[in-house]
Design brief:
Layout: H1 6-17, H2 23-40, H3 45-69, H4 71-78, H5 101-123, H6 130-142, H7 157-178, H8 184-203, H9 208-214, H10 219-223, H11 225-248, H12 254-274, H13 281-309
Helix pairs in contact: 2-3, 2-7, 2-13, 3-5, 3-6, 3-7, 4-9, 5-6, 6-7, 7-8, 8-11, 8-13, 11-12, 12-13
């Protein structure tokens, strides 16, 4: 292993931390906070900032343990159909850090999450669900790739991601501010959950050959690419329907205007999946990237609408 300079080491850790992908967890958390503020007038800045830190720490724990536990598949993927959005960060594949470092970092991130959670609960006196909700997030993230549970290989990891990046951050951020969970959150979280489910699902397409060899039984391995593509299309349509329905539950109608460009992008993606665009490596990479756009755009459309018009 080549000895890296300090600056190079920092860059490697940033790459390992997959910083751009933190947005898929932070944006829904911001949405829940804005919703709490606009519906109740309550906004506790320290609680919000600590909550964001906790969300990032859980994501870091998830990414670090994933890099350590998925090294075999990631090495295979590097020589097969991997693209920018799949196969991990490739830091460990390229042998840029000692093998044990990501796992150690994962434990550190988990420990720091516990400390931050305790500060939020006992110093700022947030509600009784603070600790249970935090534990759900930590267990889901830590064991997403790690044995003995390893959600990612059991065919339910995609559903768990939909929950943890959909309902959980919106509900937790609202709850930390207000001490309760408004029913509208259940509807708002559904389109976000659908889009992040599809992010994980479509990112499994380029990893499919490697996952088959590694016997990593995620949904694309279980269903095959063609059926998984139809599942992607179905979940996308469910996301459209639930977005409209959430607006009918009391959200400002301007949300539909903010959502219109995202709808157009996701409609294009449905067409591409129907035409088996996932068979083309360049097109699949574009589909992976645009699917992330639909997730971020959905959270942003809600946030802008609530910020603009309230509820």
């Amino acid at each position: 292993m080549e000895k890296l300079s300090f600056l190079s080491t920092v860059k490697v850790w940033i790459q390992l931390s997959r910083v751009p992908f933190h947005s898929v967890g932070v944006l829904p958390f911001i949405l829940g906070t804005v919703l709490a503020w606009k519906t109740t007038g309550i906004f506790n800045l320290p609680v919000f900032l600590l909550g964001v830190i906790a969300v990032i720490l859980i994501m870091l724990c998830t990414y670090y343990t994933g890099e350590y536990c998925d090294i075999f598949e990631d090495k295979l993927s590097a020589d097969m159909d991997r693209n920018t959005f799949s196969g991990g960060s490739q830091v460990m594949v390229k042998n840029l850090l000692p093998d044990k470092y990501p796992m150690i970092a994962g434990y550190i991130a988990l420990g720091l999450t516990v400390i931050v959670g305790l500060i939020i609960k006992f110093y700022y006196n947030t509600g009784v669900l603070t600790i249970p909700l935090g534990i759900i997030g930590m267990i889901s993230g830590f064991f997403y790739s790690k044995m003995p549970i390893r959600w990612v290989a059991r065919g339910i990891g995609e559903l768990l991601i939909g929950f943890c990046y959909g309902w959980l951050p919106v509900a937790v951020s609202f709850y930390l501010q207000v001490g309760s969970i408004d029913p509208i959150i259940h509807w708002i979280s559904l389109p976000i959950a659908c889009t992040i489910f599809n992010v994980i699902l479509v990112n499994e397409f380029p990893d499919h050959p490697a996952d088959l060899i590694a016997r990593k039984s995620n949904l694309v391995v279980r269903l095959g690419k063609e059926k998984a593509a139809y599942l992607y299309m179905f979940v996308t349509i469910v996301g459209w329907i639930t977005f409209v329905f959430s607006v009918l539950q009391g959200l400002p109608m301007i949300a539909l205007i903010y959502y219109a460009p995202i709808f157009a992008v996701s409609a294009f993606l449905v067409v591409m999946m129907f035409k088996k665009g996932y068979m083309n490596k360049k097109m699949l990479e574009a589909i992976c990237g645009l699917t992330i756009v639909t997730n971020l755009g959905t959270s942003l459309a809600y946030t802008l609408a609530v910020w603009h018009k309230g509820i």
